[in-house]
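Appendix C reproduces, verbatim, an entry submitted by the partner laboratory led by Prof. M.T., so that reviewers can inspect both the input and the predicted structure.
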Amino acid sequence: MFKSATVKLTLWYVLLVMGLSLLFSGILYHFSTEELGEALHTQYQLLRDNDRDDRSNISSHELDIHSRHLLENLIYFNVFVLIGSTLTSYLLAKRTLRPIQEAHQTQIRFTADASHELRTPLTAMKAATEASLMKAPNDAVSLRKTLQDNLTDIAKLDKLTSHLLEISRHDSRSVSKVEVIELQSLTQEVLTSFEKRMDDNKLKLEAKTSPVRVRGEFQGLHQLITIVLDNAIKYSKPKSKIQLSLSKKNRQAIIVIKDEGLGIPASDLPHIFERFYRSKNVSANQKKATGYGLGLPLAQEIVERHGGSIVVHSKERKGTSVHIKLPLS
């Protein structure tokens, strides 16, 4: 599809360039021959007035020769333009279509990955339900377990669809009301919601925050800090430490969240913001691999939507630190 589009776009570029080239060549040829004819005619009149007509070698034949030479040069020039414009247009067409092709490939991969992730829990739910129906109708224990498993899978599907909807919302630049937000109170609200999980995992939190105001969307920034902190808790070792700092520098809000968890292999770091991508060490650890690889891509969408940046530094088995910068209000 894109090869055909590249050829068609190249032809349009070549037609445009050659049309302009032929137009200017025609104008140049017309005015050049006209000026040359007038000059020769004037010179002929002067020689004739001086009674030198018999020694004059000026004739219409010379005008034809000069016109033919000019026409040949213009033809060579246009052939050169045709070859050059074809090569240049092809390269330009490929460069023009490259972002569209990459977006198309990303969309195809995204659809395939989303379909796969949706199919897995649905298949499990179907198999469990069919197995329960085949058993005796008075087997309440089995039915209860099936319902509990189905609820777990439904919760996973709900989380997946929520992430997909949020990514779609930020992709389409559809955000709710933009306002001045006090990040310190927002961060504290997120920390409060994670207190029980941190206690259950025996994690120690060190939080250093200061009053910082940014302009943005409350829901998006709340979700941003939630995603990063959720990853830090999920992949931390028991009884380890999580550090969170909030400060401002050079007209920017700086949020840093560090953990002492699994870490990310260096080979995986360039891909962590790709949708549905999960690090190899996380995928191998079924206990930790509870997400779908949509958290960090969504976090990046939110940060970029607010004009900021997000950078992840990590060492395998030593921990990860996430640095977020947002412009102050």
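The first helix runs from residue 2 to 49. Additional entries are available on request from the coordinating office.
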